[in-house]
Inverse folding.
């Protein structure tokens, strides 16, 4: 047990996640000095006064041992598994008066947190639609298929659908909680969260036992954005916890992506606003996502292209003649040339070409459309 | 009957819409000179050769009289009702080898074409979904409500839904056809098109009697974009005639707008691609549309905002204390201060404030949540 780890575990217990005063003091004087100062009642920024009520039964050494017995580890900066991308939080602008690098992360599960460097977050509304859940599940599965970790918040709705999509493919899925990692929240997701603790990881800034206070969700959202290399919002109404993620994505220069939905759905309203304002990029599936989060050159997406119809390959003047050929009743050369507005000799040349390539059929009474040209006439 | 009108009616009959050679020659030597040259077989750019087949029964004077008897007028540049925004086509880049200012517009219906200056186009897939049609109808109605003309192509699917939306509010609706205005196409929309000819207008570059050749739809799409001050694409698969409109919108610097839909719908794929690439702006309804096409200051849209919940207005430290107050079992000051991570004295001040404002209720055993704070707890 190093002093550093002990001090950070103490600070984790004494202060709230995202408290800028803590992050700044740790950066200035170090965790050990800050912790000693608080214990010695040498106040800075009223931190001692605020922490006073939590000092009564403070015993980080015992807490770390108890955690270890329960399979919970406390990961701090400098550890091999520390996700160094979190250090970006030292420079990002605060959002909702929160910010800063966490003093440490409490974690359960076999997945080491440095694996999260190329992870993708999929988050969204708790009151999701069937559509949103389907899309979240598909993207979660796609992230797993791309051999990346899927990170979300284990909430009802979009979060759980994304987790399940990744888990269904045996992909590593990581839940970042706004409460202690020993305290599955929401309770209805106990088995989902336990499963992730078995095959992936469950992570929190908060020490074991802490309750999921609403204000902690805001700090948690910052962690999800900071841990991953891109955050996809699948559904979000205009009043949505996910809205807060947009601020973090901007603050940390991480790509924020939004999945559109029916404009008639309130659940997509928030996402549409972001895409409209340029805060989020529109993505329609995991291919779009991987293109946006991938390193340059990686995951170059196949833009869905229309199948090229044979007639699309024709020269414009050949098409003009083809358009002038009737579907059923054959027409003569002069009539076709006049309809096309093309010189007789050119119409003749074009008809020869079109006949050779089965676009038109020549009979005794003239030309009519051939089999290759019949498809896809305008209704 | 001026020579100019006669010459242009002749050219309209002899050449295909969007033929760049025609537009350029008219700009260089004038319609009368070009028409005379063609009649005298003085060729330029092979125009005479191409027009030869159509010269046989050419009689624009008789054609204009016949049109007038059928309630069809031929509007040319210089006429009071000429929609001068079409002149932008002289400078726009060609798309699919087409372009140029039309030599004239054949029109039926009481609506004068100069009314189209602030009109809005709503177009989209012929094979639309119920969702797309509902949105097109709503936007069509919204355009009419804003006292603007609704322009579309009278096709099945999105086009007809947009027309009907405007017509349902007795708004002026204009159909731009890829065939003669006396020849309703598609045939299934005969009564819809006749209705627009009675209350709005039916417009085409093509003289009466002309057939809707496929290639003419591309030239027609350029007219729709050029006539209006913005084009909304409601649904478009990746292979869609509407795709062509994107090129015109860019060429003419007219706003192109796209309505998103479910990413699981092929009908929205084309629109999503455009929004993603930046070719189209995302719009979710007519308010967005009017904001994008309106003059500066006009139609400033109310951004849908989340209703502000009372607790959102609280100072952060007050919220922190509020979060620490239990829902049912009351808690004491020390416990609340410790949970919140706030100094005792500050917690006391906050609780007093929160009690006064009904966020919390104080009883003999401590504080619990009050009625104003109960709403909207995370699931």
């Amino acid at each position: 047990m190093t002093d550093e780890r002990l001090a950070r575990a103490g600070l984790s217990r004494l202060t709230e996640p995202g408290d800028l005063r803590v992050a700044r003091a740790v950066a200035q004087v170090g965790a050990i000095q800050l912790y000693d100062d608080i214990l010695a009642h040498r106040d800075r920024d009223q931190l001692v006064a605020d922490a006073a009520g939590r000092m009564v039964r403070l015993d980080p050494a015992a807490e770390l041992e108890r955690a270890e017995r329960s399979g919970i580890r406390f990961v701090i900066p400098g550890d091999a598994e520390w996700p160094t991308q979190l250090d970006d939080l030292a420079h990002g602008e605060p959002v909702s008066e929160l910010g800063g690098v966490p003093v440490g992360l409490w974690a359960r599960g076999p997945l080491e947190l440095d694996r999260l460097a190329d992870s993708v977050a999929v988050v969204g509304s708790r009151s999701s639609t069937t559509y949103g859940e389907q899309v979240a599940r598909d993207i979660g599965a796609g992230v797993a298929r791309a051999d990346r970790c899927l990170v979300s918040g284990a909430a009802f709705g979009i979060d759980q659908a994304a987790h399940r999509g990744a888990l269904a493919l045996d992909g590593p899925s990581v839940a970042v909680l706004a409460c202690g990692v020993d305290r599955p929240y929401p309770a209805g997701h106990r088995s989902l969260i336990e499963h992730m603790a078995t095959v992936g990881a469950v992570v929190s800034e908060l020490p074991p036992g802490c309750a999921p206070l609403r204000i902690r969700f805001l700090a948690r959202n910052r962690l999800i954005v900071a841990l991953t290399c891109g955050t996809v919002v699948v559904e979000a109404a205009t009043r949505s916890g996910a809205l807060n993620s947009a601020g973090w994505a901007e603050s940390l220069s991480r790509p924020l992506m939004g999945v559109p939905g029916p404009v008639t759905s309130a659940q997509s309203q928030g996402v549409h606003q972001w895409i409209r304002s340029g805060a989020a990029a529109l993505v329609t599936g995991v291919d779009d996502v991987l293109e946006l989060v991938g390193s340059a050159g990686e995951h170059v997406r196949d833009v869905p292209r229309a199948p090229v119809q044979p007639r699309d390959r024709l020269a414009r003047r050949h098409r003009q003649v083809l358009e002038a050929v009737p579907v059923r009743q054959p027409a003569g050369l002069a009539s076709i040339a006049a309809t096309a507005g093309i010189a007789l000799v050119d119409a003749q040349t074009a008809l020869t070409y079109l006949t050779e390539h089965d676009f038109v059929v020549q009979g005794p009474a003239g030309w009519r459309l051939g089999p290759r040209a019949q498809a896809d006439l305008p209704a």
Remarks:
- The longest helix of chain B spans residues 130-145.
- Residues 33 and 218 of chain B are 28 Å apart (CA to CA).
- The two ends of chain B are 76 Å apart (CA to CA).
